[in-house]
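It is worth pausing here to work through a concrete case rather than discussing structure prediction in the abstract. The textbook approach is simple: state the sequence, then state the predicted structure, then interpret. We follow exactly that order.
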Amino acid sequence: MVARLTTKFNSYYASRPVLTMMITNAILGGIADTVAQSITAIRQRAIRKPEGVQEDDRLAIEIHELDKQNPLSERDLIPDSKILPPPFDFERLARFAGYGFFMAPIQLKWFQFLSSSFPVTKKSALGPAMKRVAFDQLIFAPLGIALFFTVMTVAEGGGRRAVTNKIRDMYLPTLKANFMVWPAVQIINFRLMPIQLQVPFVSSVGIAWTAYLSLSNAAEDAVEEESIPESSDIRL
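Step two, the predicted structure:
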């Protein structure tokens, strides 16, 4: 099954590499956000019960415990808030799929640049791979994270102030989490994966990472909404 899918992917990539990457990235981005929304829905369904979380809500409790133990973030990814998105938000899914779709050509060009700049050979493999990782993590990752929060905030209807607040609150914690996860992943990617599989490999591993970004983005929005006074007499 995997071999058949790989063969199909390689044939599509050979004929239309950019379009193939865009569609693949959109699908994987959509899967990641679906996972994130499903996790949120399980937790929020238990919280929104009139009697609150019960002992039989084992999965919701387990999610909450894992959230508390999350080493990538100092605060809850799923805060106990009743104003988080509804069980499933198709607009949010579309935003993540669209972001993956339009980011794919940039990622592909970047990986092609790294591949040509630091070629991996049988005699020299680890050194060029480490240089690729260093360039990727010190240049592409910081810019990519800033771009993600900017695009998502604008797509949600936020303006300059919302973008500034999101970057201020989320950029450094997310970049720190990135450095904890992605160097090891990219060493495998650049050392072992052929160029046509590098973006799909990153996107596949990135399902968990994108789910983390999705949860972080939604959690930050919930915190911001809760901080807005409810009085109708407020003038901006």
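Step three, interpretation. The mean pLDDT is 78. The CA atoms of residues 10 and 197 lie 8 Å apart.
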